[in-house]
Amino acid sequence: MIATIAAIRSLSPRVKEFVLQLPQTVSFSAGQFVVMTINVGGDQIQRSYSIANDSAGETDQLVLWIALNESGRVTPQLFQMVVGAQLEVSEPQGGFVLRDASLQQVVVFVCTGTGVAPFRSMIHECLQQQDGSHVVLVMGNRHREDVLGHTEWLQLTESTPRFHYLPVLSRPNEADVDMQSGYVHAHYRDWVIKNPQAHVYVCGWDAMCKEARQQLKDLGLTRRQYFFEQYDG
Ligand SMILES: Cc1cc2nc3c(=O)[nH]c(=O)nc-3n(C[C@H](O)[C@H](O)[C@H](O)COP(=O)(O)OP(=O)(O)OC[C@H]3O[C@@H](n4cnc5c(N)ncnc54)[C@H](O)[C@@H]3O)c2cc1C
Asked: Which CATH number is correct for 100-230, 4.10.520.10, 3.40.50.80, 3.30.70.2740, 3.20.20.140?
């Protein structure tokens, strides 16, 4: 279907939020993505983007959080686009969605960069469960300015005591005392060790996913307890 860019907003130095107005209502599950087809120098190129709406279900607007890869084929062109431009997008798709069984357990979301996008609606869905368990977001970035949705996560922490937000910076400044430092892996470990039945959802680029997979295995989690969305296939 052909979508129209309804709004563009800078979220960080490298990431923009694109709001796409769809020609019809679609239904999506928290965690799904759309495939965008874009013409680059005469080639039709496809790229996938997680749906970053804050709640799943029926919608005629999709929110996408997209990072610029200066040497990439598609994102430099996307970042030149303006409100009113049109894009081809697929129906929502993908199997990286909340398992029913997760809703009875501690759920830990682990991501780097725009890997947080699918977690937005997934976290809200977990928190809508009346008697739900703890929900943890461990989000890795290099610098403070790269952290996506910081204010939203802080507000959610205040309003919902069972939500826990752990931003982690790999290159912190001295002033970043309110955030963890290092890589994400050291920071979800304790939650998993203390809650051996926890379900863990991981989203981001290859290196982080690979390391998380190994660590979760080493911690004794079974394949029914962890789920991955890898941005480079
Ligand atoms: C299911 C799925 C959902 C996705 N959701 C999102 C999303 O919500 N937001 C988003 O920004 N991207 C998302 N991606 C990645 C996106 O599809 C593109 O790969 C990305 O936008 C780069 O496209 P490009 O054409 O500009 O770069 P390419 O020409 O494809 O990039 C060239 C190389 O750079 C690597 N690369 C690109 N960007 C990065 C990065 N930030 N960190 C590390 N390596 C990188 C790629 O692996 C590739 O090898 C998703 C991918 C998948 C498979």
From this structure: 3.40.50.80
